[in-house]
Amino acid sequence: MQEVKAMSVAVKEMMKQANKVVQLSERQPDLAALLSSLVDHTVDQLEADIDSEKARLELTHGGSSNTIKEFEEREKQIQKLRGKLSEFEAQLAEFDHAINEIRGKWEPKLDEIIKSISDAFSDSFARIGCAGQVTLDKAEDEAGADGEPGGSDFDQWSIQIHVKFREHENLSLLDSHRQSGGERAVSTIFYLMALQSLSASPFRVVDEINQGMDPRNERMVHGRLVDIACAPSENGGGGQYFLITPKLLSGLVYKPGMRVLCIYSGEHMPKDYEQLDFGQAVQRMRAIRDRGRALEDPTQRSNGHVDVHA
């Protein structure tokens, strides 16, 4: 009788536990799914699974006793880094705003200067039957994945010079591959002249500007230089130019106000060089030319009077 009574008590306890499990399974769908998967398990299999899970938990606990502490420390570090990231993002936004504000003031002025240089450069090329322009290449970063505009690499901004020397060609970037040496020299000189048009100066020195040029390019550059040097001040002139060169072509263009200075020096100069009268020598050469007994003197082919001094 006692055994039956004990079994009855045990069954009631099991029923009570089963009801609790049923109630839990109703509130937790995952637990209901787990119970349905264990219907066919025997008691031995269930005990084996329980022992396996206990062993795994013991191994986990024993292998890293400071796991929770490490997790909490890392969580604190993450929160701290997130705070710093927020500060950096706020500073970055302030810097971007400041950059855009400053850029809004100086970029239009820079564009205006580049346009003035390009206009002067294009005018010089148009006068010799060619074409040219100066542009500002503004290096911009690629847009972000969310469509935000990229930033500007101001240190990568550059001046680009485009020229065209032949009618059938298009404007091309000035470099060492597309143009000849003479064409690059002409482009460089005209660009320097365009830069000079933006600044006032009492005088400028041009040293051997015609060296390495073919006669056609030399005549074009010399003619343009004369136009600029002899132009009125309101047209970009007014400054004095010193052109230093060891040689000049015949038949170049000269205008009133120009003066040719010939410098005597070298090992072939006579000892009594102070007795030389260069002006008289020039007059004799002109007389010889007029009689047709010598080559033309380049200083006489002029559309204006030129003073010659030694």
Automatic annotation (TrEMBL):
Q: Which domain of life is it from?
A: Eukaryota
Q: Give GO MF terms, alphabetically.
A: hydrolase activity; single-stranded DNA binding
Keywords, A to Z? Coiled coil, Hydrolase
Membrane-crossing residue ranges in chain numbering: none
Q: Which Gene3D superfamilies match?
A: P-loop containing nucleotide triphosphate hydrolases
Q: Could you mention a single GO BP entry for this protein?
A: double-strand break repair via homologous recombination
- Does this entry carry the keyword Hydrolase? yes
Which GO cellular component term is one of those annotated?
Answer: nucleus
Q: Which residues form a coiled coil?
A: 71-105
Per the record, the similarity remark reads:
Belongs to the SMC family. SMC5 subfamily.
> Could you identify this protein by its name?
Structural maintenance of chromosomes protein 5
